[in-house]
Specification:
This protein has 366 residues and is of the alpha+beta class. The chain folds into 3 domains: 127 residues, SH3 type barrels (Roll), CATH 2.30.30; 120 residues, Nucleotidyltransferase, domain 5, CATH 3.30.420; 101 residues, Ribosomal protein L30/S12 (60s Ribosomal Protein L30, Chain: A, 2-Layer Sandwich). It is 34% helix and 31% strand. The chain has 12 helices and 16 strands. The chain is flat, with a radius of gyration of 24 Å.
């Protein structure tokens, strides 16, 4: 989360301007905003610019609402803020009800009557964290492309691009240009270690050549200087299948997703060996953490980012405790190659620093 501006002191009124940068930031925003807060954000509305117009036009407007309620949309990682507009404008009358959608990379202002210690701590802790993704994946077929950011328990579908005129060279260039624009928007080589361009057939190779040619033409040194980190892989299937390919894993061996795969394999080996150095299930994992025995916590995204507030807080508290004790926390999204198997182990498991034989769970096929 990027903190652009702050104007408040502890236990007093004030305003902040922030930009959520990843899906987890939106969950923080959801918990940060309370009933009665003031939220200001840009949105669009359909209005009649002229009395003679038969159809309304969509215009960009800035709306300020006093919050009555808010909803977290897990699938799209957005926060919908509902409230009454408190500032009249040319297109939005004062007192009318509106819904603002807060999303990644979209700036908004939040004002509170009281910034208590909990809200301040959450804001500063999140704004100091660097974005989690360290792998960008471009899945390119002949007529469509999907762009993902992967890492630190996050798998975000950034964009889906379609070529409406396959086979026409000018259209193909436009297709590549659309992908190029997404690349420029989402790939930051300060955090992204590897860009994987994958697919079946020649289109992926053609796009890499187009990408490097455009970067040279536009003198985009960030792309030119990181040419070795932009790799191509011939493979079919969705993201999960691509990342499970052995040769792909070798290409992205330093990325977090590979470390997560290795951790899950280590967990399985320890469970098979009955060494007492691994456990699964909430009860056993919590008991292990009570003894500060957890070296690595493995948890599914369905638990860690559950749409049920109580469930999410429960596992967030567990993860925070493990982190404070010096352990690692690995979150497996539904698109992760090991997520389904981890879900079969109740969705939460741990590799331990020392054996705890009494925590052995029931046998589970993995």
């Amino acid at each position: 989360m990027k903190l652009l501006h702050k104007d408040f002191t502890l236990n007093r009124p004030g305003t902040v301007k922030i930009i959520p940068q990843e899906p987890d930031d939106l969950w923080v925003v959801f918990n940060l905003i309370a009933k009665g807060d003031i939220v200001t954000a840009d949105t669009t509305r359909k209005v009649r610019l002229d009395l003679n117009m038969t159809t309304p036009s969509r215009v960009k407007v800035t709306v300020t609402v006093k919050v009555t309620c808010r909803d977290f949309q897990k699938d799209s990682s957005t926060v919908c803020v509902h409230g009454r507009n408190i500032e009249a404008s040319k297109y939005v009358p004062c007192g009318s009800f509106h819904t603002l959608t807060l999303e990644m990379n979209k700036c908004f202002e939040l004002s509170k009557k009281i910034w208590d210690s909990t809200a301040v701590a959450v804001l500063y802790e999140t704004s100091k964290k660097s974005p989690g993704a360290d792998l960008a994946v471009f899945l390119i077929q002949e007529a469509q492309a999907e762009v993902y950011l992967v890492g630190n328990g996050l798998t975000t579908l950034c964009s889906k691009i379609e070529d409406s005129q396959t086979g026409v060279k000018s259209a193909s260039n436009m297709f590549f240009r659309d992908i190029f624009n997404v690349f420029v928007k989402h790939v930051n080589f300060r955090t992204i270690r590897t860009v994987l361009i994958a697919g079946a057939g020649p289109t992926k190779d053609e796009f890499r050549r187009f990408l490097l040619s455009e970067a040279k033409r536009l003198k985009m040194k960030a792309i030119e200087n990181n040419k070795p980190r932009i790799v191509v892989a011939e493979c079919k299937g969705d993201l999960k299948k691509v990342l499970n390919e052995k040769r792909v894993m070798n290409m992205i061996k330093d990325s977090n997703v590979v470390l997560e795969i290795r951790a899950f394999r280590e967990l399985c080996e320890l469970l098979d060996n009955k060494s007492g150095r691994a456990c699964y299930g909430t009860e056993h994992v919590e008991a292990a953490q009570a003894m500060m025995a957890i070296d690595t916590l493995l948890i599914t995204d369905d638990l860690y980012r559950s749409s049920d507030v109580k469930t999410r807080h429960k596992y967030a508290k567990l993860a925070k405790s493990v982190g404070k004790g010096g352990g690692k926390v690995l979150v497996y999204t539904s698109m992760h190659v090991s997520a389904e198997q981890l879900a079969q182990l109740t969705g939460v498991a741990a590799i331990l620093r020392f054996p705890l034989p009494d925590l052995d769970g029931d046998d589970v096929d993995i």
